Structures are given as C-alpha cells and as structure tokens.
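If your schedule permits, I should be very grateful for your opinion on a structural question. What I wish to show you is a protein chain and, alongside it, a tokenised description of its three-dimensional fold. Would you kindly read the sequence against the tokens and tell me how you understand this chain to fold? Here, with my thanks, is the record as I have it:

===
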Amino acid sequence: MILRTRILLLLTLVVVGFVVGDAVVQGMLVTKRFEGLERGLAEVQLREIQEDLLSRRGRLAAVGRRTGIRLRDPEVGLEIEPRIRADGVDLFFLLEPDGSVLASATLTPETHQPLRLRDFPEEAFSTRHPLLDPSVRGGLLETEHGLLQVGIADLEPAYRGGQTLRAITGEFLTDRVLAQLGDGRGTSVSLSTLSGDGLSSMHLDDVLSNAPVFEQLDDDRLIVEDVLLDVRGLPAALLTVQMPRELNQIARRSASDSMLSGASAAILLLLTLVFILQRSVIEPLRKLTDHAVLIGETNDTTQRLESDRTDELGTLAREFDRMVSELERSRTQMAEMARLAGASEIATGVLHNVGNVLNSVNVSAKLSARTLHKLPIEDLRTVAQELETHRDTLDEYVREDPRGRHVIPFLAQLESSMSNAQDDVRRELDELLQGLDHMMSLVQSQIGYANRTSAATWVRIENVVEQAITFATQARPASLGMRIDREFEETASLSLERHKLLEILVNLLVNAFDSLELAEREDPHIVLRILQQEDTIAIEVEDCGVGIEPENLEQVFVSGYTTKPNGQGIGLHTCSLSSNDLGGVLVAESPGPGRGATFRLTLPARRVGEAA
C-alpha cells in the first residue's frame, strides 16, 4: 500500500470516528435531555387528565344535588330518566340515611335503556355499603357493566328535624368519555381495571408506586400510566395516556441535521487536508522516491534533485543529494581499491603457482649443473695433451707405447660416459623448458584475463596429469618415497586452457604431498583417478594424510585460509577460481581429521572432442 493511500485511509478513519463520536455524544446528551422534557410533558398531561376526571366528578355531584332537590319537593313532578338523560349522566340514586332508596334510575350509556347493577339495589342499600360512608365524596366503582365514576352530594333537611338525604350520580367511563378527555391534547386515553389484564405489560409494584410509570412503545409513541382510586381509596383502575413523541422527533431531526452538518464539515476538512498533504508532503515524497528508484535502476549517481524548499522535506532532498554524491565518490574509490586488490590477488596467485613450478625448474637446473660438473673434462684434456705430444709418432704411440695402447679404449669409455651425461642433461633441460613454458603460460593467462581473451587447446587429460605429477614431485623432493596409484579411465580430448588445468593439478598434488608428510604414514600414497561420465569428466586426487574438519570443507577454498604451518591460503583459492574459468567445479571431501581427503575436479563433457 503506497503512502498516499495510507494517509487517505487514516484521515478517513479519523473523520468517520469524529462523525460517529459526535453522533454518539448527541445521542447520549441531547437525546437524553429531550427525553427528560418529553417525560415531564407527558406527566403534565397525565395530571391534567386526572384533574379533568375530578372536574367531571364535581359536575356529577352538582347534577345529583340539583336533581335531588327537585325530587324532594312533592309539588314538582319530575321524571328521573329523561332528566338524567338530559344532564348526560347514566345513574342517579337518592338515599335516606338508613340506605332506603327514595328514587333511582340507571341507563345504559349506548342505548339509554334501563339497567340493573348488582351494587345498586332498587329498594335499599346495605348500611355497610361504601357509598353510605359519610367520608366518601365520590370515586370509581367497578361494575359488571364497566367502570363507573360517581359523585356524591348530601342534601340538607328541608325543614327542622328532617333527614339528610344523599344524592349519588354516576357516569360510565366509556370510550366516548375517554376520547373527550384526550381531545385537544393529541393523546389517547384508556382505562383498565386492576383485576383484568390491564397489567400484562407492567409490574404491579411499579404501578402501585406513587410516581407515574413511563414506557416507550417506539420512536413515535410514549405511554405514561398511573393508578386511579375507588370510593374506598383503594387502587381500582389503571389510567393509560398514550401521546406522540413530538419532542423526540424534533430531537432526532436536530441530531440528524447536526450529524449531517458535522459530516459535511468533516468531509470538507478531509478534502482540505488531503489537498494540503498532497501538495506539501505526498508529492515531494513521490518525487524523492521516483528519484531514488531511478538512481537504483539506472545506477546513475550523477543525477540530483536540487530542491529549493526550506522545510524538512527540502532538507531531506538536499541530504539525499549529498548522500548520492558521497556514494559516487565512495564507488569510485572502491572501484580503484577493487582494481588494486584484484591485481594484487592475481599477482599473488601467479607467484604462488610460479613458485610451485619454479621448484621443479630449480631441481632440473641443479641436476643439469651437477651432471655437467661430473663430466671427465680433465681426463679428456690429459688425453688431448698426450696425443698432441706424440703427434708425429701417433701411430707408433698408439700401437706400441704401454700408455698409448689405453688411449682408444679410454676414448670409447669416455664417449659412453659423456653420451649418458648428455641424455641426462637433455632430459632435465626438457623438463626445465616445460616448467618455463608453464610459468610463461601462467603469466600470459593473467595478461589474457586482463584483456578478456582465452587460449583454449585440445588436450589429453592423462597427459596433463602426468606432467603435473612430474612438476609436483620435483617441487616436493619428500614425495620421492610416496607411492602414486593411477586409476585412469579412457577419455577423449578436451578443448580447454591447458595451463589452468595443469595449475590446478599441480596445486592439488603438492597439497597432497604436504599432507602425507605431516601425517607421517607408514605407507604414504596418493590415488589419482580419471573418471569418464556421461556429461562430465572427473579428476580425483585422494590422499591418506591429515584430513579436513567437516565444517572446513568449503572454508579451504577461501582466500587466506590455511591449515599449513607455513601456508598462505592462496593455492586452493586460485584452483577454485581456475576451475570456474574452465566451467567446472572443484569440491573437497574428507571423513574427518587423520583420515585423508579427496579433491574432485569435475569438467563439462560437452566440450569433449577429438584431438586435432
């Protein structure tokens, strides 16, 4: 993910978090406050409806008082049912103090037909009837026809010594009456008895508490409930007021508008920040990144940003240019150091390999000099002087003089001795010339490597191996007592750089001789193998010398690594490089210290052909 995408994603998350947090805060603070106001308004409306019920109860008592007064006057002929129907009430009873019924009428609220109620007998009330209690001034009664609200008015005696009559007036709290209570308030009012199913959604202990109970049906409706008392002062019915949640709707609209405005401001802020970051940060960083990638791809350290900014990004760009300049300088210095180091390594390798061959050349030169010093030159000079002395009588001297008769046999013996010496000197000189030729090839190979040229020739592997044995044995005189076993398979010729192969084999054989000398074996010997395989030709040099630690089998080819007391760590490193130049692989194997080692040079057989 690129930096621009990450920054945009991060800013988007911050803006979304801000919007969501703002919505949560508004929901927790503003909405809660509106809910408190809403509940207060609902409680006010509940109390107003309860006051309206009390007002209707007072009206009932007034209607009862007026009707009772008229009925008490015998001169006034009054029909009760039409009167109470006209006054809008459903029940009227006029009682004496002992409960006797003087007048009564009960009508159904729907059809205004006569109705009989169990708690309102037509002849007399029980003295324990709650409506006869002087302290009772009205209230609710649960009847078989529904809830009835009654109002009570006591009529003073019309004459001295008369009785106080009690007028009881009531109305059924029907849906029509409840609708009248809710009209003008936008609320819905309902009543349910506590003995019915009115408490199916409420807890009884909550209902019977002194405070109203609130319940949210949904986001649009709120219910507030309270208990109404009967004529005994006991809970009789549950008054339920359902009102629209206008304040909640206002709060939600306000929260929605606020969230929308906050989101718009946040998006505008996001776009502004993205624009500023794009211009001030992202675009300069992109240019710096593209510049760095271009330098990495083209390897051109001469390019510069040359920024004129004065902020931190400008400082970063200038520091980057300075680092590239330092890198360019360092690369130049390192290239020169690498060239000098390469030249030093090449020179060291050449000297090491020339040193191995030089030992052989030195031995051949010494043997030739020793042979020449042993020639009977003085004897030949003495014979020459004798013959010169007897020049005139040479025939007689050779045939008759006792000393002269030995001249011819002596010359024959001298010829034979000098002929043998000549053969020895010629042989040593041939080996000396071969050594010099190999040293010349080593030097020429390094010159050719510097010029990237190669001089491949067709060679027989076994011939190169034999020549390497000669050079190695002459370079290490101690090898004369060591046995060399040859296990050569027949192979075709290879087209390769002969001197490099010879260089590798001489180094391997010299190392094998040194290892055998250090191991001091009773039967020191080396096994040389030439193995013809399908795709490769392998040359193995196996010794029974000091061996190699398993963890050092690869380390032995590293420049400078050596286990010899006087070693320099050059030979095997040079052999590894030369094997790579030949397209081959040189590996070392050893069972462990004191168990010998095997070095295997594998060359590709695809270069095998017939010798020209």
The chain has three domains: 3-246, 338-453, 457-612. The longest strand covers residues 146-155. Residues 3-72 form the longest helix (70 residues). Residues 198-202, 449-453, 607-612 have pLDDT under 50 and may be disordered.
